[in-house]
Fold these 3 entries.
Entry 1:
Amino acid sequence: MQLLCLPAGQLFGYVLTGKFKSPSGEWKHACSYLAEYELFVMTEGVLYLSYNHVDFTVKSGEYLLLPPQNAFRQGFRPAGSSFYWLHFTTALGDLPTAFDPEHFTPPLRKMLHAPSDGDNSQDGAGGCPDEAAPGYGQK
């Protein structure tokens, strides 16, 4: 798994959005080029999608965010599914940071403690790491 950390105050450029419902359980995502970010939010079924030589299985209640990598995406297995999709862009200087999830504690999992004797520290790490993980965009 790779996590993306979007910079605080980031502005996004809206491209296109919609809701898709497959016509049958034999539907597969067509092969198409991805030049911007795409977010899938699954509402029913399963989406089997291959992108940049990685196969993703996304189930109802899950989401998938694909970064632009000048690559094609396509279904690798038929299935019935329904999902919201959103295409968006970012300014070239404001690209998200990718990092190894083993070196990150999401802010919702932070454990706070009451300061004692002037100690204002927090237990656990949080937020984005200072540096991107090597090989961003590569699997």
Entry 2:
Amino acid sequence: MTVKSIFRSTGAVLACLAMLLAASQAQSADEVAAKPKKAKTTKSVKTAKVAKVKFMPGSQETTAERVARLKRECKGRVNAGACEGYTN
């Protein structure tokens, strides 16, 4: 390596570090500016209605149906994953 190439690579590394430092400082300044102010609480604030979450049970597939499906779908496949024990 020549002295010229060493200076170029060192300069490139320093430039990258300067950009990273500037980006991190800009990000921290944005975070400080983005902090929300506390809202005044009043008694007239209405509470939002929350919808009930419906529970969706599994696939509604019985054990016998699952075994039959896996035997059918895993025929000739690698004996691994969901097909483990169902390949022929």
Entry 3:
Amino acid sequence: PSVKFMAGQRVRTKKSRSIHRLIGKNKRYGRFDQNHSPLGAASNDHGGFAIGNLTNSYYEEVGLSSFRRGLKLDAVQDVVLLQDEIRISGTADMWWFAHTKAAIDLSEDGLTARLTLNEKTLIAKIRNGKGAVFSVMKAEPLPTSPVVPDQAVNDGVRKLVIHIPDCGNLDLAVTFASDVRENEGYSYEFSSLDQWK
């Protein structure tokens, strides 16, 4: 199934958006003139990864000292890992969005989401992250979002969401795999982005 990661709302331009939205106490959050810098990448016959620095995507008053995101493809196990490491002074309202046209079914504990589209299934699973659970929302702006002229309409799209109010330091890891691979079992152990090779 098609899954599009973004924070904020889709507009007519295709400017990159961060997957997270961190909202400070004064309701300010990510800038739209984001400057993401790569920190490292590598690939081989078994897969590959890339790590980016998203710290400068947020206003200083959010209190963010570091925000790094890693994306890893395990070609052997056919699994994609998305990992975010956030370091913040104090707390902020954290939102994580994945936009999709797939039907979304959540497990009772909220840690697994089954996305089905065109008779194909993708399993999203929260592997790490204190207080993180999935929910589903309409693909509409948050009440605290700025009004964007000519906002695109997200017909047939919903958001797979992780929302952590009063979020402090966070190591969030989400995997995406086919239902076949998930049922066969995927061996996961958290490792920090510094340990990725």
